Each structure stands twice: as C-alpha cells, then as structure tokens.
Amino acid sequence: MSRPVTGPAELEALYGEPGAASIAKEVPALTPGYRALIEASPFLILATSGPGGLDASPRGDGPGFVRVADDRTLLIPDRRGNNRIDSLRNILADPRVGLLFLVPGLNETLRVNGRAVIDSDPALCESFAVDGKAPKTVLVVTIDTVFFQCSRALLRSRLWDPAAQVPRASLPSAGALLAEASAGREGGDAYDRSLAERIPKTLY
User: Fold this and answer.
1) Residue 40: predicted pLDDT
2) Residue 178 has what pLDDT?
3) Which of 38, 87, 98, 163 has the smallest number of Cβ neighbours within 10 A?
4) Is residue 165's pLDDT more than 90?
5) Is 51 found in the same domain as 94?
6) What pLDDT does residue 52 have?
7) Measured CA angle at 113 (ends 57, 77), to 5 deg
C-alpha cells in the first residue's frame, strides 16, 4: 500500500541528518579542484524549468568545452541540435539552472546550481567556433552553489565498466523509436540510414 511522505519533518525523520562533509563540500564559487573537474568534463546535463514544465538536456563536446570565465562564471556554447530549444525557452522564463558534470572514468560528479543568461554576442559565439562553425548562442551561467557528488550512483550503475555496456543492436534504433512514438508518421529504416550520414556532418 502506498504511503506518501507529505512533509519535511517526516522526510528528515526517515533519512536523518546529513554528514558534516556533505554540507562542507558546498561552496558559492569554484575551488581549484572543482574547476579542474569542469575543465576535464566532456559532458553535462542541463536542468531547467519553465511554464511548459521541466527539462533535462545533454550537452557535450571535447573536454573543456565549458569555459571557466572566473570562479563564479561558466560559458557554455549551445552546439547544434534539433532546434526544439526547450532549455533555452525555459531559461527565458526562469533563469535558474542545474548542471551535472561527468568525467569519463571518474565516479564523482560535479553539481552546479546557478542562473543563466542566453548571449548571442557575435564575438563571444565566434570564440567557441569549431571547424569555422560558431554556436548561435552561449549560456553565461552565474554560479550560486557548487559541490561534488559522491561515487555511489556511478558505482552502482557500473556506468564506466566496459563489461556493462549494452550492445546497440539489442535495443530499438532511433528510427524505430521515432516510428513508434509517431504511430509510423516519421522514422523507420530510412530515418536510420539518413541519420547515420547526417549526424557526423552536423556536429557543429
């Protein structure tokens, strides 16, 4: 039978007090170690909230693709995607963002909470160009808090363990997923073939 938790006191009674280290690790600006994790990370998840709901979106590029402007400011190029721009629409309505940085092989992750502005300054965008292709915008994130997350989640998931990798052919392809979601209007084998050709040419 369901037993919903309805208040903070009940929740805290279930979990108890956080350890001293869990509190001490959260700071309002980057430490040298936190900066090193960001500069080594090729991947992050960007969480936003807006009138249309919540969004968690992957962002990735070579290590150091997120530029540390200073100990409270991060610059994130908005690379090519599907043009849904759900995250950007949310930021226009609510600038609060959450970032989760991952570094391959490292079981600790880094969490940043802050506020973002979408900047389309041509010089700034051009400074992030790859192969002569600049992003249309750059997210300028002002850090409110930053802290590292311990290794338990990644250890339990075996995320970096090669033996835990799932063979791609064992799960539906992108074309199959799209065909299923759209009741056959989009997707299928033709989509998979075109995607395999298109993605490498449109990374930037």
Assistant:
1) 98
2) 97
3) 163
4) yes
5) yes
6) 86
7) 50
